[in-house]
Amino acid sequence: MMDTKPEECSVCFNNYDDTLLRPRNLPCGHSFCSQCIDNAIKNGQLNCPSCRAQHTATAATQFPISYGMEAFIRKLKGMEVVPVETVPAKPNKASTRGISKKLRSLVEEQKSSISSLITSCEEVLSQLGEYQGQLGDWKTQHLQLQDRLYALVEQNKSAMKLLELEGTSVVDMTTQGEEGKTQLQAMLGSLDTVNTAQEVFMTINEVDQCNMEVEDWLQKCQELFPDVNTVHTSVKVQETIREALEMTTTETGATADPIHLGDSDSSIMTKVQEITGEISQKEITVEDLRRRMKEPVKRLVEAGRVVAVQEDQDGRRSARITLQDGQLYLHPLMRQPTPAHAHTLQESDVVGVLDPSCTLAFLDLGWAGSTRGRVTIQLTPDTPLARQFVLLCTGQRGHTYCNTKLLRVENKGQPGECVEGGDYENKDGKGGASLLPDLRGKYKESSQAGIVASVGWNLGDPKSAQFGITTRGRQDDDPYVGVFGDVVSGLDVVRAAVNHSDITEVTVVDCGVVLPL
After folding, report:
1. Is residue 420 a contact partner of residue 408, using CB atoms and an 8 Å limit?
2. pLDDT value at position 98?
3. SS3 65
4. Could you say which DSSP state residue 477 is in?
5. Which of 2, 347, 383, 508 is most exposed by smallest CB count within 10 Å?
6. What pLDDT, on the 0 to 100 scale, is given for residue 78?
7. Dihedral sign of CA atoms 6, 12, 18, 23 in order
8. Please, which pLDDT band fits residue 492 given cuts at 50, 70 and 90?
9. pLDDT of residue 260
10. Closest by Cα among 475, 477, 467 to 383
11. 224-227-230 Cα angle (round to 5)
12. What is the 3-class SS of 297-323, one letter each residue?
């Protein structure tokens, strides 16, 4: 259904504003206010209220503001508040009939000049609106950073309070120790001066009492000091604050090099990008993703604003590019909305950076409504089965392992245990035809756990896109053939899937390849 009130958030039905309810675009293409997005984020995940697409997120501010929507709303409000009597009347064409042709030409020239100025005003007003939105966004980010700084200050205060309490306890115990030491020294002097048996017994009783008190003090010192919580908190808070300060590269009082913005005919936001070092959509390339990725590009990737696209006769498909734990991942091509303000790269260019001799692919397995883990596979260099596996992990030929189910477990609980999957056609084990005309090649044989192999009896099998992953090894004299990869991480995830009550409930929720940085 078409949205008849674009100026409203479709979740809370409040009008967008320039503070807490600013419109923001999700990677799936839908827009909601900042407050509703923050409320919808749970455990680092955001489900789009419209299409239920999942996005990794910790705060609404990581999604771009819909400046176009804000400009549209301002224009809409402007149209609503203009009084009828202020609307300029239509020009009376008859009023110029009595003037000469030369004067009429002059009038038309003036009208054209005014119209041009009006267009220029509208363009700059739109730029000012976008810039105003950016300023508001920065202000919000400053407030969030300020809150985090306050939190660090409060942590520092708490650590100092613990240190003060520990210091007081140390002073008290030191006083007790000094008193005990003084008493012991006095006891030594008394033992030197005893002359009678009665004095000896009395002095020994006093020494025994003093010894007990000092030994009790020694034991308390061993038990009380150091206080683990106090020391641990102090060290960790110091490390956290020190790291935060070391990350601050701008010195107090430093000023930026002057930039002569008046010499440029670029738009306001283009100049802002020049100042901040942001990457414009025209400038980003595949090389920007490699060899020590720069911070502006890294921020774009982490925000989900860099995608690979492929155009064909059926339209456009796009693939997410993500950065996790220092690894860059290319996900499969899907027919899905391209994120707003996305930076697009050609899929062929992105895939072209893969080194055939060391391709890493991945499968994310999930069941019972959640993703359980990632399985990373090192593919055998330059073999047809490995190339086919890459095609189905990236979706370059229109088919993908994404959303397929695991099919069966062979030899469950026995040597040679193997889980099978890969029916991208029917998802029931009856399909999975080859994407390549010839799968013949030189393949290794292995009986080890963690190998990835074709499950067809021969490489021309109509189900030869199906694959098997062994979870238990078997005797060397009975190896698997058609081996084209090895699991390098995540074999425990595969074993957990094997132990699930119904293997057909296990789904490949995502897949793709690792891109070299």
Report:
1. yes
2. 66
3. strand
4. T
5. 2
6. 66
7. negative
8. very high
9. 53
10. 467
11. 155
12. HHHHHHCCCEEEEEEECCEEEEEEEEE
Kindly report, residue by residue over 162-172, the tens digit of the pLDDT. Answer: 999 989 999 99
Give one DSSP letter per residue of 162-177, joined into a string: HHHHHHHHHHHHHHHH
Give the span between the Cα atoms of 385 and 459, in whole angstroms. 9
DSSP-assigned states of every residue in 476-517 = TTS-EEEEEEEEEE-HHHHHHHHTSS-GGG-EEEEEEEEEP-
Secondary element (H or E) of residue 34: helix 34-40
H or E segment to which residue 330 belongs: strand 327-330
Largest CA distance in the chain: 145
Under 8 Å between Cβ of 18 and 31: no
Sign of CA dihedral 134, 138, 139, 141: positive
Length of the chain equals 517
Per-residue model confidence as pLDDT tens digits over 403-412: 999 999 999 9
Tokens of 44: 């680092």
Place of tokens 């604003």: 305
Helix (H) or strand (E) holding 327: strand 327-330
Backbone region of residue 69 per phi and psi (left: phi > 0; alpha: psi in -120 to 50; beta: other values): alpha
